[in-house]
């Protein structure tokens, strides 16, 4: 169901995924992972829906063939992604929404490693958050909820008092399992598909408005 004008949601903290939520990294991801898929004899169209939102090492473990050192393979892919910034862009409205929030009320929770996340956020003009949960922060990535639990803890809030903004199924599942209020961003999935899954969704972050009310933040849509 689309988050429509006139509806108001309330939380204390905002937890943002990065790729597909704050940053449109689709062109880079498809180039780098497309090349890797070719080396593995895989169809990129079948790989990406599963890989999106997951840590590189977990995707490699799921799809890789005869790879003896998963960590080394993940490092190679992450380095290739760090060196490729062509086509990176902000998801519409993302910087404005971040700018409207107090610095101690939002966090980034990403499956990317920290160095890659810093490159992508910097390339798109985002500040580095005070609370920054990356691939290195957890032993198990999304859909395991620990990453979002850590994000909420870092802000000093219970996950149930936080919004999670996500685009990928793995991340949406992680946010729900953490007990947060989950809002899907329809950047890598169709709105029809999100409706079928019963997700509350927005097309992007443009038009979202926040109003501070003591310890709480009200979220509305123009």
Automatic annotation (TrEMBL):
Protease among keywords: no
Record field: transmembrane: none
Keywords associated with the record: Hydrolase
Keyword presence, Hydrolase: yes
An example molecular function term from Gene Ontology annotations: sugar-phosphatase activity
Gene3D superfamilies per the UniProt record, alphabetical: HAD superfamily/HAD-like, Putative phosphatase, domain 2
PANTHER family from the UniProt entry: FRUCTOSE-1-PHOSPHATE PHOSPHATASE, GLYCEROL-1-PHOSPHATE PHOSPHOHYDROLASE 1-RELATED
Name the UniProt record assigns to this protein: HAD-IA family hydrolase
Source species: Acidisoma silvae
């Amino acid at each position: 169901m689309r988050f429509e004008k006139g509806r108001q949601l309330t939380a204390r903290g905002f937890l943002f995924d990065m790729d597909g939520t704050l940053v449109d990294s689709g062109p880079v991801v498809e180039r780098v992972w497309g090349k890797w898929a070719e080396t593995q004899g895989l169809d990129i169209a079948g790989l990406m829906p599963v890989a999106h939102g997951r840590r590189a090492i977990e995707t490699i473990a799921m799809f890789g063939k005869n790879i003896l050192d998963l960590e080394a393979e993940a490092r190679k892919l992450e380095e290739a992604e760090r060196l490729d910034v062509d086509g990176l862009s902000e998801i519409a409205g993302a910087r404005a929404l971040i700018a409207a929030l107090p610095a101690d009320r939002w966090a980034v929770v990403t499956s990317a490693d920290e160095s890659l996340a810093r490159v992508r956020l910097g390339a798109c003009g985002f500040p580095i958050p005070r609370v920054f949960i990356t691939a290195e922060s957890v032993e198990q990535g999304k859909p395991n909820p620990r990453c979002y639990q850590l994000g909420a803890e870092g802000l000093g809030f219970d996950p149930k008092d936080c919004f999670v903004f996500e685009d990928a199924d793995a991340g949406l599942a992680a946010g729900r399992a953490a007990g947060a209020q989950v809002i899907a961003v329809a950047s890598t999935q169709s709105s029809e598909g999100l409706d079928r899954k019963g997700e509350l969704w927005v097309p992007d972050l443009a038009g979202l408005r926040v109003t501070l009310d003591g310890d709480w933040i009200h979220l509305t849509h123009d």
